[in-house]
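Figure S7 source data.
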Amino acid sequence: MPEPIKLDLVQRPRRLRRTGALRALTEETVLLPRHLIAPLFVVDGKSAPEEIKSMPGVFRLSIADLVKECRALHKLGIRGVALFPKLDAKLKDDKGTGALDEDALVLRAVRAVKKAVPELAVITDVALDPYTTHGHDGVLNAARDDVENDRTVGILCQMAVLQARAGVDLVAPSDMMDGRVGAIRKSLDAAGFSGTGILAYAVKYNSAYYGPFREAVGSAQAAGTRLLSKATYQMNPANRREAVIEATLDTLEGADILMVKPAGPYLDIIREVRHATRKPIAAYQVSGEYAQIQAAARLGWLDLARTRHESLLAIKRAGADIILTYFAKEMAKELGR
Ligand code: PBG
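Tokens for the predicted PBG complex:
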């Protein structure tokens, strides 16, 4: 062993890492169950929970099981759930008509959850992808080569009002049409739902990380291809300045919370939006981020508990107030209330 060299240091950052107490006292970022929102998938009928292949540990639930799960999540200190319906292929069509069915699966699910666990904030997506045969978030134009913005926004407004009537706390437009936040705000107010908030998917990228989710809600096979491109409405992953434009527009249009999605690969974007707005920021750790960690853990290449914690801490540290994550339940168990 060589002799230690003489270092004349005044600053020794390791001093504050020396003991558990000092590390805890100087910890900058805190992650609690109340910062997490659990995305949940719901199906019609009375079937037993079915696991989503590319998302181990995530299940499609009947409404009865969904209600049980919401009770359990609430006991663990989780304050919000985001509900996603998986429709029978028979109920889908070209125009996503099922989205305006007053007895739609997701509306029944909302009513059941709000009745059983009223304290839990319930959030629903406003977008047509679970309802269209082509899997796009809106209706197609006459040439069928793009999603028609303004016609789609009209449908989304009606959809948001139905969700508000069913009792959601926040509607979450995830479609990325231009002007939809403002139009939805106006429609909600006109229908008497000025208290229903908008959690805007303000900065949503055209990401490959949504793959497992599309399996979960059956919107991937719909177009007959896994290559379904949403590039004409979701953002280009190469762009950062544009995130500020989108966040600013949604704020001006009346969004209450701004979401960045995906989260982990877009920490710089979360930070950028944090500097650009005073609004609360949500970040969505999407299905592919979850799948990646699960897959590596299954291969024995990563430690599941430590990796999921670190992945969420990083999102919080970047500036997110709220995180939507498929790890919500397991994380809440680990963190305690
Ligand atoms: C649909 C929607 C998507 C997700 C949430 N809402 C997929 C998409 O835009 O194709 C992705 C969530 C995830 O991957 O976990 N508008």
